[in-house]
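hey team, just a heads up i'm posting the complex here instead of the shared drive bc the drive is being weird again. everything in one block, sequence lines first with there labels, then the predicted structure for the whole assembly after. its two chains so it's a bit long, scroll down
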Amino acid sequence: MRRLTDAHPPEPGRRTYLDGVRAAAPIGVAAFAFGVSFGVLARAAGMGQVAPVVMSLTTFAGSAQFAVVSILGAGGGVATAIVAAVLLNLRYGPIGLSAATALEGSWWRRALTAQLVVDESWAIAQRDDGRLDRHLLVGAGLLLLVCWTTGTVVGAFAGDLVADPTSLGLDAAFPALFLALLWSQVGERSRLLAALGGAAIALVLMPFTGAGIPIVAASLACLVGARRSR
Amino acid sequence: MSAVWISVVVVGLATIAIKAAGPLLLARRTPPPRAQAALEHLAPALLAALVVTQAVGGDNGGFTVDARLAGLAAGAAALLLRAPLLVVICAAAVTAALVRLVG
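-- predicted structure starts here --
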């Protein structure tokens, strides 16, 4: 079940920032295309041209940004938009916890590096032992930040130069990426159980809660690890 | 400040704080073994939840079954054939695009 992807070499030797950039390149294309579409939609929703770019640089989380655009664009209130976006980004609490042991240096350096954590860079930086490779994380995160923000600039200032990313099937690239990286992790029985538990929790909650909550709740499945380590 | 800028600033600051919280809380501290073992199981749990929500999640919660699911199936097939990551991602995207083209 292991050794399937470029992101996971057979031996977890020393990886460089460039390895992270390379591993993230294919998903960077999708991030760029969705960045363009975010810029276009944000401008059409009356957010102007600069605000969407600032948002891509600071928030740097696609689903929350699209939520803000669609709520403000539909005439929804500021509070509604903020709450929806924060709920969507709450998953970065548990994701940040899992990344914590990989980060080094002073508190501000750790906090700064943590800003490069997005679903995709975090996924790409996974090692088979359940820990994170900081070089892969930083390389992948920087590339994705550049792709996402550049895409937003193009969309906000130049308009729709790129075809609709969903018509290119690029929205399907994301679950495939996560599945591929999950695949190399579930060789061990307890990790497989955590994955099945996480998927089950998400599936059960999705019809009842707003987007965002199912992923946060799914992190509870990691407790099978604590139980089984006794 | 306009509604747009309030949203951009508040969401930006909140996201920065959420992302920094974990690494700051666990700064230079090695968690006890059982907590560490749980942390090492966070990744598969969260990755699996991301697969599910990204493949069949709707815009406002709930489920939406569309071409993404066909794309994911193609990606899974590529994984079973031991294809590299790039091929897995491309197989998913091309399949979803074709399904949308036909449907």
